[in-house]
Amino acid sequence: RAALLVIAALGGGLLFSGCAAPAGGPIQRNSEIVQRYFERWANHGDTRVADELIAANLVLRHPHVTVKGLEPYKQSMAAFQAAFPDLHFAVEDRVSQGDRVLVRWTMTGTQRGEFQGRLASGKAIRVAGMSLFRIERGLIQEIWVNMDRLGFQEQLGLLPSAPTTEPPTVDRSPLK
């Protein structure tokens, strides 16, 4: 019993001395910034929220392109949202550590407008991806995006779908 009381007292002392992460600390604030980014900016195109959350000198790194600056990023996102007006990012997981927040998401939408020089296809997409955010002084400074681009292009009909052939049968008869 005495040992339990000592452990409880030490644990409480550590908690109140600041060794435990405080509620509402920078890690939690960074996570909330990214959640708001998805809820208001990525899903609804609210440019006021983008201006509040994203640094003017943002660097977005995507496998095929790097976008530098908030204004070019807002323009590219507006074009993407025009092509997919029902665009929605469902946040599946969110992990925060230090100045970084990692989000695993699923993006859905229907191509109802021109996209990369191609007319609206009316095709629906469902694409998995992850984004890593670096936040400094309460603003998103950098974003690294990694997504299933091959699946995205196949769903839009930009690439041929993978063949769905039956696997070859194997002769399992004894050797002669």
How are the SSEs placed, and which strands pair?
Layout (H helix, E strand, L loop, with lengths): L1 H16 L8 H17 L4 H7 E9 L2 E4 L1 H14 L4 E10 L2 E11 L13 E13 L2 E9 L1 H7 L21
Parallel strand pairs: 1-6
Antiparallel strand pairs: 1-2, 3-4, 4-5, 5-6
Helix pairs in contact: 2-3
Describe the structure.
- The protein has 176 residues and is of the alpha+beta class.
- The chain is built from five helices and six strands; from the N terminus they run H-H-H-E-E-H-E-E-E-E-H.
- The chain has helices spanning 2-17, 26-42, 47-53, 70-83, 149-155; strands at residues 54-62, 65-68, 88-97, 100-110, 124-136, 139-147.
- A hairpin with a 2-residue loop joins strand 5 and strand 6 (139-147).
- Helix 2 packs antiparallel against helix 3 (47-53).
- The longest helix is centred in the N-terminal third of the chain and has 17 residues, at 26-42.
- The model is unreliable at 2-22 (pLDDT under 50).
* Rg calc: 23 Å
Give the averaged pLDDT, no decimals. Answer: 86
Number of strands: 6
Assembly type of the chains comes to single chain
Count of helical segments?
5
Sheet with the most strands?
6 strands, mixed
Across the major sheet, the strand order is 2-1-6-5-4-3
Low-confidence parts: 2-22
Strand-residue fraction? Answer: 25-35%
The end-to-end span amounts to 76 Å
> What proportion of the residues is helical, as a percent range?
25-40%
Order of helices and strands: HHHEEHEEEEH
Assign the structural class, choosing from mainly alpha, mainly beta, alpha/beta, alpha+beta, or little secondary structure: alpha+beta
Describe the global form.
globular
